[in-house]
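Dear H.,

Thanks for agreeing to be a second pair of eyes. The structure we're designing against is below in token form, covering all 227 positions.
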């Protein structure tokens, strides 16, 4: 058992949780103990633990599935370091990678999405539409796409998405110039998100694939003049 943590902040909690995962020799796809057990092992409150879990999920270290638990994703020591990948990537290449991968993930999501995860996808869609700043919109847009990956119910696809998304964040940083304080009501991604959601709700794999591909092509054309 690891030494108990004085919950002085999220960073300490994140470090303790990472150490717990490393010490437990967990592999990708392994399920972590339940929250109550982790609270006891690490000496954290539920609030602090959940903040640490949220942080690790954003980093792509873990993956959470409603009703099933928390799973280990891709350890940072596996594969080429993100910094090396980013060094060789351009925004256009990154977008082409998204076009190769995310439509296939949407196809699987249409087949496997649970009712609970569909609610989360719809919530992210709604919050993106209601965003009052570009930063808020981008956070919800990120969550929309990440939750669709979770809806595939395939830990490998989630892991691939997480690494792709980490590269996307690094490559796209400071490359997009916004001319408004928030997305305008006419922002094309809103109707494109609606089309993706409609295809998922209809359980139509081909339509979900095409809707995601159309969305990403639209984003690529808007940002980089590529489609």
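And this is the sequence the design step returned. I haven't edited it by hand at all.
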């Amino acid at each position: 058992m690891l030494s108990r943590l004085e919950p002085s902040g999220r960073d300490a909690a994140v470090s303790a949780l990472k150490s717990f995962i490393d010490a437990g020799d967990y592999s990708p796809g392994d399920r972590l103990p339940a929250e109550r057990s982790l609270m006891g092992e690490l000496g954290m409150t539920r609030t602090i633990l959940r903040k640490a879990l949220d942080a690790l999920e954003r980093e792509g270290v873990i993956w959470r599935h409603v009703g099933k638990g928390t799973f280990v994703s891709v350890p940072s020591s596996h594969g080429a370091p993100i910094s090396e990948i980013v060094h060789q990537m351009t925004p256009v290449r990154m977008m082409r990678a998204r076009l190769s991968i995310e439509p296939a993930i949407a196809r699987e999501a249409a087949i496997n999405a649970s009712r609970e995860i569909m609610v989360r996808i719809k919530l992210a869609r709604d919050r993106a539409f209601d965003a009052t700043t570009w930063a808020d919109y981008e956070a919800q847009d990120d969550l929309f796409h990440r939750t669709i990956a979770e809806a595939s119910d395939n830990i490998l696809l989630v892991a691939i998405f997480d690494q792709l998304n980490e590269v996307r964040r690094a490559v796209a940083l400071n490359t997009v110039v916004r001319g408004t304080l928030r997305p305008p009501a006419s922002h094309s991604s809103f109707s494109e998100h609606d089309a993706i959601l409609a295809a998922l709700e209809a359980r139509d794999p081909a339509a979900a694939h095409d809707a995601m591909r159309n969305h990403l092509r639209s984003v690529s054309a808007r940002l980089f003049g590529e489609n």
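Two observations from my side: The chain is about 65% helix and 5% strand. Confidence is low (pLDDT under 50) at residues 1-8.

Warmly,
E.
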